[in-house]
């Protein structure tokens, strides 16, 4: 099967890979609420010898606060096991800006701490002549801060975004994310920012280097950030169906956003993963089957596991797309989560 397709594993992913790069919102928790199977799956992965680093595009909080929240959800975590977009943004900043230079920070405590830790002088106004603007999400970011960022960028400051997520999952639904706030500065200046967060693989590479891992696995719920970053970084990616991107989204995913594995939730780390294979014109995954005929996706078989039907549908659709004969998206149903 194409390298852009699903992979199979005869052993549990927690055994096959030595490090899981785990997203937070929509994967380990949703807002302040736990996600079914998250604590069980991560505890089992640790017991199997897999190490964990929680890699989040959220730049508003410090690693200690993230670790405390996870621990309170029965996922014991140390601050050293958290890699935030704020830390990645500070690392990206250091590739061009010497320590000691003035930097305008727009964001929360986590971003301020990460930038200060790299030795920069944090300023609050464009009139302080910052050489760079570093922007991350915080719930209290408002017009005045966005305006200062725009003034500084117009005057030549380098614009670095912690991430470009347009939406942010919360307990009440999806709220505007950092990408939406960055978009306001981009609209005012016409300048495209550099981004440290996913889908850039920067954070993944930093986390892998920190852990000294040889066989990392990305685990996420968003195709356009988590899994796109996995593809960009040439790291296998597990898409769990507990967050933003649905099973139908996975079937219709662009080649650069396709996951390598699929699971209902984080307990998918603890089991083998069957690989869909072609058989008599169908793509078959255990009891599930799918094919594309005359531009339409057809589903069949007697799947015992709903995820197997998603796997088969992905394999059939991706194969057809790669051959230039992909299905009409209208023929792809809302598959089970």
From TrEMBL:
| Hydrolase among keywords | yes
According to the UniProt entry, its GO molecular function terms are: hydrolase activity
Q: Which domain of life is it from?
A: Bacteria
Q: Which InterPro entries match?
A: HAD-like_sf, HAD-SF_hydro_IIA, HAD_sf
> What are the UniProt keywords, alphabetically?
Hydrolase
Q: Which PANTHER family match?
A: 4-NITROPHENYLPHOSPHATASE-RELATED, D-GLYCEROL 3-PHOSPHATE PHOSPHATASE
What this protein is called in its record is HAD-IIA family hydrolase
Please give the organism: Cellulomonas wangsupingiae
């Amino acid at each position: 099967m194409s390298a852009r397709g699903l992979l199979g594993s005869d052993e549990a992913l927690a055994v096959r890979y030595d490090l899981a790069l785990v997203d937070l919102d929509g994967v380990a928790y949703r807002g302040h609420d736990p996600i079914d199977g998250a604590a069980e799956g991560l505890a089992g992965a640790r017991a199997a010898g897999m190490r964990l680093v929680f890699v989040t595009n959220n730049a508003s909080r410090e690693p200690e606060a993230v670790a405390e929240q996870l621990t309170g959800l029965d996922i014991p975590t140390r601050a050293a096991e958290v890699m935030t977009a704020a830390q990645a943004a500070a690392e990206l900043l250091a590739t061009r800006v010497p320590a000691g230079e003035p930097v305008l920070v727009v964001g929360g405590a986590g971003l301020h701490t990460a930038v200060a830790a790299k030795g920069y002088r944090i300023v609050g106004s464009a009139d302080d002549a910052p050489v760079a603007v570093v922007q991350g999400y915080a719930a209290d970011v408002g017009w005045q801060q966005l305006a200062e960022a725009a003034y500084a960028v117009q005057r030549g400051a380098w614009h670095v975004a912690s991430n470009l997520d347009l939406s942010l999952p919360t307990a009440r639904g999806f709220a505007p994310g950092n990408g939406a706030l960055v978009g306001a500065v981009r609209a005012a200046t016409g300048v495209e920012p550099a981004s440290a967060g996913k889908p850039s693989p920067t954070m993944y590479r930093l986390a892998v280097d920190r852990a000294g891992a040889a066989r990392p696995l990305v685990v996420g719920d968003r195709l356009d950030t988590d899994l796109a970053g996995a593809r960009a970084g040439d790291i296998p990616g597990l898409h769990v169906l507990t967050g933003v991107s649905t099973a139908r989204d996975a079937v219709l995913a662009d080649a650069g956003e396709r996951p390598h594995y699929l699971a209902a939730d984080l307990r998918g780390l603890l089991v083998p993963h069957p690989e869909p294979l072609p058989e008599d014109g169908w793509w078959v995954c255990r009891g599930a089957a799918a094919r594309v005929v005359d531009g339409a996706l057809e589903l069949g078989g007697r799947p015992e596991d709903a995820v197997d039907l998603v796997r088969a549908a992905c394999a059939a659709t991706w194969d057809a797309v790669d051959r230039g004969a992909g299905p009409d998206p209208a023929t792809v149903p809302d598959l089970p989560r």
